[in-house]
Amino acid sequence: MSDQLKYIKENKDRFLEELKELLRIPSISADSAYKKDVMAAAEAVGKSLKSAGADKVEICPTPGYPIVYGEKIIDPKLPTVLVYGHYDVQPADPIDLWDNDPFDPVIKKTDIHPEGAIFARGACDDKGQMFMHVKALEVMMQTNTLSCNVKFMIEGEEEVGSVNLGWYVERNKEKLASDVILISDTGMLANDVPSITTGLRGLSYVEVKVTGPNRDLHSGLYGGAVANPINILTQMIASLMDENNHITIPGFYDDVIEISKEERAEMAKAPHSDEDYKRKLKINDVHGEKGYSTPERASIRPTLDVNGIWGGYMGEGAKTVIASEAFAKISMRLVPDQHPDKITKLFKDHFESIGPKSVTVEVTPHHGGDPYVSPTDNRGYKAASAAYEDTFGKKPIPVRSGGSIPIVALFERELGVKSILMGFGLDTDAIHSPNEHYGVFNYFKGIETIPQFFKHFAEMED
Amino acid sequence: MSDQLKYIKENKDRFLEELKELLRIPSISADSAYKKDVMAAAEAVGKSLKSAGADKVEICPTPGYPIVYGEKIIDPKLPTVLVYGHYDVQPADPIDLWDNDPFDPVIKKTDIHPEGAIFARGACDDKGQMFMHVKALEVMMQTNTLSCNVKFMIEGEEEVGSVNLGWYVERNKEKLASDVILISDTGMLANDVPSITTGLRGLSYVEVKVTGPNRDLHSGLYGGAVANPINILTQMIASLMDENNHITIPGFYDDVIEISKEERAEMAKAPHSDEDYKRKLKINDVHGEKGYSTPERASIRPTLDVNGIWGGYMGEGAKTVIASEAFAKISMRLVPDQHPDKITKLFKDHFESIGPKSVTVEVTPHHGGDPYVSPTDNRGYKAASAAYEDTFGKKPIPVRSGGSIPIVALFERELGVKSILMGFGLDTDAIHSPNEHYGVFNYFKGIETIPQFFKHFAEMED
């Protein structure tokens, strides 16, 4: 057994305990009520980096939540790996659907995780995966096997669109200079089917408001004679897709790069069963754009989803009211070469134009992100692939993911460096959902694999 | 000047004082903290009926608040008028929006009420209007002009849905036997534009739930490949109306009685301006079923309004989630001869049938109410019309109201008697709102008009 594995084995319980400690901090960046907790999470990450052996650890202020920086430069001539992750988490609601307090981590066995999984908000996204890199640094430091320089950039606003990361990166290009960026904020196909994410969808996220009468009205006295903002909102949203679930916003598909038959055939090799998919989600049928498979719909095609809707009376019983206002949050996942700002503008112009004269419509952009595709023939990918082979005993499959990590495109643009998306989560880990969890196996497999990446990256040529 | 007018003039101050006394009792039926006051109001009404000259006055117990009964039978061969009203009132909150204590009546002049209006909770709805009938009885008794037998049925639960009125009526059909029911619990167009409400809309109210995946999902990883319950709900609701705002539920209009050109022409005489309507509601355009005017859309046509909708993330900021469930509360206003139970079933069958296989749809009925229309060619209406002509100097306009008063249909069903809605309130009286008031002019005009109704009803043939 290698020194690294021995060290991991000896410190297993502590590595778990330290992660649980971090998970106890409700660092919800979307809700200002948790400001103190988000700051506390930043401090905790800084401390853990120091004790892992990082130098120059700073909590770098930004116009929003701070970015935690730390580095270990062993030899300027050696290649440098920049690790990115985030310490903020999604809101936990609906709280009542959790089996345990989302901020009091519990380890439980599941069918997919016979060795147990850590149940807590952020367990997988992204505290658990980010913390693997901190522990991997400790392992390499303690076993004198650190083979590259390493820098850490851990932010606290990923779940709200990394609104200040660009601001920080632009101002710290030299400090962040590196040869490759390593990110664990995605997933793999299964614990026995390792994979590396080579593509990500972009994002355009807007909030819409439809206003009718200047006050709530009695639906008996006014019903039928005034535009009901909720009825109108449902009609406007419904009109955004046709019967083939094709998005009807003019120009929406203009920049979409059609994937070649060959690439689609390659993708189709990844194991997938609509039956399993339906069973796991307890749905009677899949649903999506005509002419594409489920994995394609969730990765290489753009989407439009209502993430939230509200208006009128939502309480017990019946209230015969016509609301003055109705609201929705709508997000669109984008694929190369769609541009979020362009899509947001197309949406805003179109949506504001389809409202009838009897209401006023407002569209407020939230945040966006560029789609991204990384080649599989560069040094970073090859080093990652070799690392998985060492620890999983098989070559990882390159996969295009439906999610968005807008920063990946930002890094390439600002720092000129490719990112490797070394994610160890599973689809079933319920990130952004109640009972989010992260496999104990996955946590330690990550801590084990990351040092192998450093080793191979140091050995390989560009 | 008639004896009646002379008597009213001589007792004007006392008539006002007695109403104010009744208004000082906070008989809020919705709030059990006021139980003693509601009972006290019942007692006060009983006392006032006795002193007006009624016999057999009883405070009749029900499973809820009592019903005050009283009668004056002068000759079994004469027709009998049954007066309905209620002594309970709406809660007064938000209290801080009142200019005076809602239960310490104040008389103030307003633009619409130059002779002054009584400001107090219940001034118009319904103590003020109900008490006109008590005083009218006194007037007729004191001037020996009572020309019909009269019965009073004054309840204390109208503001909480008349939950025990049906119970009482079923058990007292003989006692309540009458030729016409007289109710003053509605309004008229203006003090110089008398009107009589001849129709009320019925109601079908349902709650719908659309369920997709068994948990909230990450909209990046699943977006585009699973049915989003909110998107689906908006499509289902939108499909319930066509481009002419015509409701598409099969069979929905089957029982709707088309109004004759003549009656529509009659209705069109009621003063209405879309411009004023738009200005008051701060809307750029009216909106509704093609081929009908604004007053028609709000009265003689059925509607479908979403009263509330909710699902997914409604908090601050952006959450990229696909919700597991989406909900809406939907109400339909009904017109003769639509039946609420039938419409509710049509809605449920249709709505549950249009959901795609990828979701499950549930429809839960809330409560319903029958529509009602009283012909303008029957004895009761003709007597009322003649009475208004005597006291206002002009024929009243028959008006169909968009609201619902389910008890009117109950009376027709259980007692087989038509109700005449002789309301003297104004739209601007702010019933159910802060600063509710009732014009002194309207109060005495009612006391003056009611005896004329008795006179004409006695003289007319069926």
TrEMBL record, chains A, B:
NCBIfam families: PRK07907.1, PRK08201.1, PRK09104.1. SUPFAM superfamilies: Zn-dependent exopeptidases. CDD domains: M20_dipept_like. GO terms for molecular function: metal ion binding; peptidase activity. It comes from the Bacteria. This is Acetylornithine deacetylase/succinyldiaminopimelate desuccinylase-like deacylase. Residues 199-357 form the Peptidase M20 dimerisation domain. It comes from Owenweeksia hongkongensis (strain DSM 17368 / CIP 108786 / JCM 12287 / NRRL B-23963 / UST20020801). GO terms for biological process: proteolysis. Keywords: Hydrolase, Metal-binding, Protease. The lineage of its organism: Bacteria, Pseudomonadati, Bacteroidota, Flavobacteriia, Flavobacteriales.
